[in-house]
Amino acid sequence: MTTGPIGLFAPQPQRPRLGSVALASGAAWVLAGNDTGTMVTASPRLYPHMWSWDAAFIMVGLAQLDVDRAAREMETLLSGQWADGMIPHIVFSEENGYFPGPDRWQTAVVCEHAPARPHTSGICQPPVHAIALRKIVDAGRRRSGADRRRAESLLHYSWPRLFAWQRWLATYRDPLGTGLIAVTHGWESGMDNSPRWDSAYAAVQPGADLPPYVRKDLDKVGDEGERPTDAEYDRYLWLIEEMRRVGYRPDEVVRTGSFLVGDVFMTALFALSCEVLAELGEEGGQPEEQIAQLRRWAARSRAAVLDTRDPVTGLARDYDVRAGQWVSTPSIAGFAPLLCGGLDPQQQAEMLAVLEGPDWMGHPDLVVATPPTVSPSSPHFMPKQYWRGPQWPVISWLFSWAMRRGGMYDTAADIRAETLRLVSDGTFAEYYHPLTGAPLGSLSQSWTAAVVLDWLYEG
Ligand code: 2M8
Question: I need a surface site. Which of 170, 339, 366, 421 has the fewest CB within 10 A?
Fold first, then answer.
């Protein structure tokens, strides 16, 4: 792998803000620096592999630069898809600078569905891949000849595979039969240490026989306080150990695992992706019954998202299946209905008003008015801690994209403009301190660069 441009984009206190051209060049440079040839790793040092939902956002950025390169990214991701349809949360590169790596997961050793090569992890992440396919197909169709053909053949190749992925979620991850898609590990949500998961993790008791391990993440960020604690990691690793012991069989993991939470954000993305994939299927002449099935799944999961709303706050909630209770801890996931739609105009206006109001985007202490992952008004707010408060450009992009699709143009445009202001320091950080704008976590994070590129190219 080529070395990422860490030095070039290292944060500097007096660093001038970059204009659009320099920012776009910097973003393209980050993606090129993290490109191994077959995959753009999530970041140069902290995450030297392909993460499932990172890859989808990376494709969104690559599509603006090079349709063929974006298509290859999708093919690499799908080369790691399991025989039962699951897209694993990590497709490993040849690097060994990340823990837990293939030796710890042992997926192909204990599970017949896992590919022997490439090595993969044994859990999943949010299904945003249909959005990436949409963007690649649209970029290809806007151009001529080779790009158009490449995009159409990618659509033909990917559609059945993405259908199988959505089917896997609908089949194995709907334990209540309501359409609320459940996660079996906080990592599956992508929001690893969000306070959304605190109560469910508190009930996870790492066994005395948890095999020992050494973390590799802590020396790769500026401050250990930006990463989860060791106690959290013990639980993360214990859940993997439980899964490994049942051979990653999806029904057994759901039946026996210590952690099972209906994830309202994942569910909204599932519903959204079912709709997007159905539209692509219509354009690409895919089987009508499968297209209709996607629409049924979308409708059911959309309804499930709306049903989670807290009668007091109106925000959507997760549901802890093991504990049999709602998780009411407010977080950005509470706005999941804005991703998948389904609210009536009055309800949508009310939810937008909360999002734009003084507890969220309009909080007076925020440096830019984009959604923080946890409100600064919340007792759980920790401004440097990963998914407990920082602003994530990729999450802003996701909301902005879905809002545009849902006709919420003004809020979508505001989020875009404010996030571009945040990232104009050129560090392309994983996440940002919401009260100071300081770049946090990994720098030169690929999905940050990718969504910036999309915004700059498409407006
Ligand atoms: C973070 O998660 C990984 C585990 O999957 C980690 O902390 O080691 C999360 O932010 C996740 O959403 C993201 O996909 C991944 C790679 O960027 O990093």
Answer: 421
Q: What is the mean pLDDT of residues 313-321?
A: 97
Q: Is the dihedral of CA 175, 176, 179, 182 positive or negative?
A: negative
The answer to whether 172 touches 251, Cβ cutoff 8 Å, is yes
CA distance 383 to 369: 15
Residue nearest to atom 4 of ligand 1 (CA): 187
| pLDDT of 115 over the 60 cut | yes
Q: Kindly state if the Cβ of 265 falls inside 6 Å of ligand 1.
A: no
Cis peptide before 100 (omega within 30 of 0): yes
Query: Which of 192, 388, 395 has most ligand 1 atoms within 8 Å of CB, for mutation?
Result: 192
414-426 pLDDT, tens digit each:
999 999 999 999 9
| Ligand 1, atom nearest to 217 Cα | 8
Tell me how far apart the alpha carbons of residues 55 and 19 are, in angstroms, rounded to a whole number: 26
What is the pLDDT confidence band of residue 360, given thresholds at 50, 70 and 90?
Answer: very high
Compute, in angstroms, the gap from residue 447 CA to the centroid of ligand 1.
11
CA distance readout (Å), 390 to 158, 169, 336, 374, 412: 34, 29, 18, 7, 19
pTM over 0.85: yes
Check if 54 has its Cβ closer than 6 Å to any atom of ligand 1. Answer: yes
Write out the DSSP string of 93-159: -S---SSS-HHHH-HHHH-TTS-SSS-B-SS-----HHHHHHHHHHHHHHS-HHHHHHHHHHHHHHH
Rounded average pLDDT over 99-108: 97
Is the predicted pLDDT of residue 14 greater than 70, yes or no? no
What would the 3-class secondary structure string for 3-15 be? CCCCCCCCCCCCC
Q: Strand, helix or coil at 326?
A: strand
The atom number, within ligand 1, closest to the CA of 445 reads 17
52 CA: nearest ligand 1 atom? 14
